Each structure stands twice: as C-alpha cells, then as structure tokens.
Amino acid sequence: MATTMSWEDKKRFVRRLAGGGRGFADRYGFRVTNNPASLFQLLYLSILLRRPGDPRRAAQTAQALRDQGWESAARMSRSAQETRAATLRSCGRRDADELAGRLGDLAALVTERYRGDLRRLRGVAKYDAVRERAALKRLPAVDDEVVDLFFREVQALWREVPPSADRRALTAARRLGLGRSADDLAALAGSRESEKLAWLVGALAIVDLDDRYQQIAA
Known about the structure:
Blueprint: H1 7-17, H2 24-27, H3 36-50, H4 55-67, H5 73-77, H6 81-90, H7 96-114, H8 118-124, H9 129-137, H10 144-154, H11 167-175, H12 182-189, H13 195-209, H14 213-217
Helix pairs in contact: 3-4, 3-10, 6-7, 11-13, 12-13
C-alpha cells in the first residue's frame, strides 16, 4: 500500500511517526542507555525477538528475566539454568531448556571476555561497526539478525553504527512508500547520527507488528 508523497510530505510524515521520542525497546520498558546493564538487556531482548513467536511475548519474556534480577551479564551468569528455564516456561517458551542454556552461556562469556560490559567489546573492536558485528556474532545465540535488532537500538548511542533497520521496519517503510533501505530512512530522519532514526525505525517496526497501515494512512 505504498503511498505517493512528495519529499517534504515524507519528512513531515516521519517526524510525526518518530515524534514520540521512543524506539522499539523503550516502548517495551527497556531504556536505551550506554551502561553495561542496559546494553546487556538490549542484547538478550534482541535474541528473544529474533526467535519465532510473537514479539510482544518476546518483550514480556525479557521483562520477566529482568524482573528476576538478571539485568546484568554477571547476575545472569550466577543464576541456575533450571531457574532460568522455569522463568522461560512460565512465559510460554517451548524451547525453555535450550534457551536457558544459551542465555547462560551468553552471560558467562560476556562476563568473562568483557567483564560484563559490551562497551568493552566496542572498544576492542576499535569503534568499527564491522568488527563489532563480527565480535557480537561470536557470542552464543547471536547471528546477523540479532545484531540487526541490537544495532537498531544502539545506533542512537554508538555513532559508528551505520543507519540500521530491521526486517519489520523495512517492510513498513516499503509499504508506506518511505523507501527500501536504512539509508533511505536516515535521509528522511534528517541525520545519520541521530537518535531520531532509531525512533523512526522503532515506530515503523511497531506499525508492522500491530498492522496499523490503514490507521497510519488515514
């Protein structure tokens, strides 16, 4: 349902979409701040969003993990696998045992390799997004799609991350006639180095998730 709009109309449209000043993670209660706990939560939220199932339930599962006190890599690494699995099962995860193991491995490796702080990963990668992607993919349960979801959020903080948009956001952008790439969206947002792009991409992802195309077009 691509719409025909002038460039200025598109810019006004994306300003309205991003006007809430919140990205996808923030809308689900995960603050996007450059501290170790926040970054680790964004990473495991991205892993949960990557897995099959309802993204809302994935966000609720991430909230449940955080509510158990596992807001940091160090704390999650000290938790028992069965306790993690029980929490995941209570959220309806059929893969609870396997996922609990993967999250435990993730937390342990982030704690061991980066002292629980993904900012150290960034430093080791010399603030280069390609190296950051490669380093993240060496962590358990992290693949390119997880990195895309993580970068979608942290591009507001990590200025070296290129304009990043996940599959849902790009689907919405295409259907709304706003472009086909993260670069297209960055041009409309007005800056490659602004949290405005993260807000826009998050808003578009939610439009697709909630199937709000008719409402938005109206």
